[in-house]
Amino acid sequence: MKCTLAITMRCNLSCDYCYIDKQASIMTLSTAKRAIDFIFEGASEEEKIEIGFFGGEPLLEFELIRDITDVIQNHPSFRPDQTTVSVTSNGTIYPEEIEEFLLDRKLVLCISCDGPPHIQNKYRHFPDRSGSSAMVERNLKQALEVFPLIPVNAVYSPENISSLPLVLDYLCDLGVRNIYLNPNISARWTKEQVNILPNIFEIIGQKYMDFYLRKEPKFINLIDSKVTVILRGGYQPSEKCHIGKGEFAFAPSGNIYPCEKLIGSDDGITHCLGNINNRHYLSEQCHIKSSEATNAECQTCSLKDYCIHWCACMNYFGSGKYNIVSPFICASEKAALNLAFQIIKGMGNDHLFYLNHVAGTPLLDGIDRPAKNKIQRS
Amino acid sequence: MDKVYFRKKFWPGPYPPSITLSREITTLEADFIKANKLTPQKISTQELNKTRMLFTTNAAEQDLEVWFWKCGGMKELHFHYGGDIYVLNQNQWNDFSRNLVSVFSRKLEGAKTISFDQATELAEIVDSIG
User: How far, CA to CA in Å, does A285 sit from each of A51, A271, A281, A324, B32?
Assistant: First the structure.
């Protein structure tokens, strides 16, 4: 069960590619409580539960995050070994108490940063178009001191795809080890831009290998996740998107969407499955299900088990349909799989590389445990 | 348990997905076990879990930063099949990993492509999404 709580649609940034409309709305605690009940009621005992605080910028409502975390962790069905709670932030806000809170409550903080200042400031700026880079860099450095494996998400757009190696260099220079490079899915990717993906990915792969051989491995999602998928023989049912069945996003209004990327303006109509404050409505409307791609090419493609053709929101942004894969996703997946396969072959008989990826812990042998707290606990 | 050990490493991030392998990979494992007459190590999943629990408790007593214990950690050449662990020697591992790689190598050869010829029509839809 994967659920996102978009606790506010307020945001202090005005990023060019954001798929959430900015509004002043803030989730009430009673709406959050209903959402939490819904999550725990819907998840089986064996199922992992992932709850993510999202926005807008969720750290604008830090007190609300604290309160909702209390609700989650005091819920009768809460089990710490079953439930992961995360906060996704734009990195411009870093409250003084956040580190202690995250450590004590065992929450995972994820920060978005698109790379060096000229890229970050271009895409992730304040409403007056002033850049956010300096602020994010400062906060990220501070966070890395306590959370050395903090996941950082960098979005690449068609216009800056050639700069992706620079983005990687920048994040690695800052000390980031858990790197998620994700495409701007709402952009229109041309054939020419897509054609250079394999070359760009190859450069990323060379850097990845260099880091690995220097015993400073980085987790890079477009490589590591695909290595795991290849070694496991494809995505397994539990790993796929289950929108409307096992994946939900709750807007501040209580409206339920199949995925946070589909909240949009929270009009309660487009993609909306119902409202958590009016539960019977949910059961009638909850008909959107994750589905297989219907493209003719996908039906006979031997990589079908290894690709994310089932990701409904990616498909929607690329083709306007939940189950039609765009040429960009097809090319991007193929480039990533090719790269991961080259990496696997390049690792030779390094069995730990294999074993750790199959286990789903690719950095297990490259990291030490988190740095001892710089926070003095009383 | 003498051939199995865990290192004190911690995974402070989101849970990776549970380990589930495709039928193709498990068949490959089964065939490999049969061909090489492998026998499972006498370490049950239950025992492994017990070891993990003990390790986690010890770490907690030492006030180490245990966030989430995850699977993984066994350093020996091995694979899991049917709830058992099969430990391999280097030659066996070389053969097994070669087989594993060849599975995907064949897949790559049969990959199809969604053509950009459809892109004009799709682009109009995407633009209308805004």
Answer: 22, 10, 6, 22, 48
The tokens describing A206, both together, are 């060379």
Both ends of chain A: CA-CA distance in Å?
36
Reported as a single tens digit per residue, the pLDDT across B39-53 is 988 665 666 666 566
Contact B11 A361 (CB under 8 A): yes
A16-28 pLDDT, tens digit each: 999 999 999 999 9
CB pairs under 8 A between A and B: 187
CA distance A3 to A288: 15
- For an interface test with A, give the residue of B66, B106, B114, B129 to mutate (most A CBs within 10 A): B114
For chain B positions 75-104, those within 8 Å of chain A (CB to CB) are 75, 77-79, 90, 93-94, 97, 100-101, 103-104
Is there a contact between A372 and A255 (Cβ–Cβ < 8 Å)? no
- pTM comes to 0.88
